[in-house]
Amino acid sequence: MNRIRMYIDGEWLESESGRTTDIINPANGRKAAEMTRGTADDVAGAVAAAKGAFEPGSPWRSLSADERAELMVKAAELIEKRAEELAVAETNSMGRVYRETRYDDVYAASGAFRYYAGLIHELQGAASVENGDMMTVTVREPLGVCAVLAPWNYSMGTMAAGMAPALAAGNTVVIKPSSLSPVATAMMVEAMAKAGFPAGSVNMVLGSGSEVGTALSESVDVAKITFTGGTATGRDIIARSATSVKRYAMELGGKSPFIIFDDADLDVAVDRLMFGIFLSQGQVCIAGSRLLVQDTAYERVTAMLKERIPKIRIGMPLDENTEFGPMVSKRHMERVLDYIRIGREEGAKVLVGGRRITEGAFGDGYFVEPTVLVDCDEHMRVVNEEIFGPVLTVQTFTDEQEAIRLANSTGYGLAGGVFTRDMGRALRVCSAVDTGIMWANTYMEETPGMPVSPHRQSGTTVDGGLDGLKEYTVLKQINLAMTPTKSDWFTGMVSEGKDNR
Ligand code: NAD
């Protein structure tokens, strides 16, 4: 798929704007594909299609829950059938290495469809007969048109994590992928169309955040906006959504603390630390980007980092042996290099890495070395701001209280990890650190189906599990009188001995 079009009301369309955006392969700076660039008018068309498909009696609304689940499982199968193509497309547009896109991203996407298809019958309400002659029931109804906006990193998984529960609950969707990585998402939509999702139930618009994204935030016909991306963008979307009082789910940025005490198994801790910060070149929302290490373990931990980091296999992302590839774009590479410069100016020292890789073929792409900055403190920008790259900052602490205070010293609350052999201390730290996910003696391992909620400026939603599915429904209360009786309120006939006030 070299030219990506929009998918609206069951048709693959070019935007009337006639404009296109190039998708650049960050491993070599060459054009990998191009996409039509939509406008606010295209958004209006897609939202109208989704609204029409949500009307009672439409082909989509006429499907039973089992039929919806069947479509979702079929889509999952078709996604997996094209796993190789999807992985290559994603690697070529955003640089995430093939071993991650092929064996993680594709199955995260298909898995979300399978998982929510399996939960489809769990959306039950409640019933009460406590007032004797009246039964009150609550039912969970779909919201209507749900917009799903995804970032460029982990784009297939993120998009599916928004679309799958929305569709399982009976909503229709308008999705917008990032202009940096729309190719694999378009292939997912192809799979959904082939699976038989009725026209209008799934729509995809393409274009910039400032034009297409804002139009979705402001649309009065969008009932809910699910956004995964940066905190600043999230603030803008929340403000624009207010005019139509729409619901929103925000999965935003992070600056996650990775705490190592001196009694930890340092071999395991440093292995997990490297996974936590250098996976996908640090372009992961839950990256453990702030190392807080007990002063008594500082020398040992930094020596291990110095010894192990140069052994990371940096290479072309399509090579199955490559462990570490390029940054997503030239602009993002420059931003990451800027932060390394800012860190130095603030007084940090580069322990490992710190520069762009320009030798040989790397010079055509956007590669930055895995980098460790030591001598950092809580007032530095590099410690407080999300760099979203392969840059680990290192701070020391002396005791548990100080570790907790430093862990909570940024505005983010996405994730964190603690390594210690003292399980009492692990539990205390997990409970005191104000984040949505904590790991003790591991990092980035999750149990599928367990819900998660970002804290503080990292977001406002519940993602995953039955709790996550319920977020795509609204409760309705229905009261049923078993024996119809008059209220006797405005009859003017006050019954004897009864005060009608
Ligand atoms: P971004 O905020 O720049 O863009 C995300 C999406 O929003 C894109 O599709 C973009 O086109 C669109 N957009 C941009 N401006 C918009 C606006 N004003 N209105 C509406 N839409 C707009 O983020 P990014 O650079 O694509 O992704 C990186 C960020 O995503 C990081 O901050 C990372 O932490 C975050 N992220 C969070 C999670 C999570 O689960 N919490 C997961 C992945 C990524």
What features would you describe in this structure?
The protein is an alpha/beta fold and 501 residues long. It is built from 15 helices and 22 strands. A seven-stranded mixed sheet has the order 15-16-17-14-13-19-20, sandwiched between helices. A hairpin with a 5-residue loop joins strand 6 and strand 7. The mean pLDDT is 96. Bound molecules: nicotinamide-adenine-dinucleotide. Nicotinamide-adenine-dinucleotide binds next to helix 7 and helix 8.
Question: How do the helices and strands line up, and which of them pair or pack?
Answer:
Blueprint: E1 3-4, E2 6-8, E3 11-13, E4 20-25, E5 30-36, H1 40-54, H2 65-81, H3 83-94, H4 98-118, E6 127-128, E7 134-142, E8 145-149, H5 155-168, E9 172-176, H6 183-195, E10 202-204, H7 209-218, E11 224-228, H8 231-241, E12 247-251, E13 257-260, H9 266-278, E14 290-294, H10 298-308, H11 330-346, E15 349-352, E16 371-374, H12 381-384, E17 391-397, H13 400-407, E18 412-413, E19 415-419, H14 423-432, E20 437-440, E21 455-456, H15 465-470, E22 473-481
Parallel strand pairs: 1-5, 8-9, 8-11, 9-10, 11-12, 13-14, 13-19, 14-17, 16-17, 19-20
Antiparallel strand pairs: 2-3, 4-5, 6-7, 7-22, 15-16, 18-21
Bound molecules: nicotinamide-adenine-dinucleotide.
Nicotinamide-adenine-dinucleotide binds next to helix 7 and helix 8.
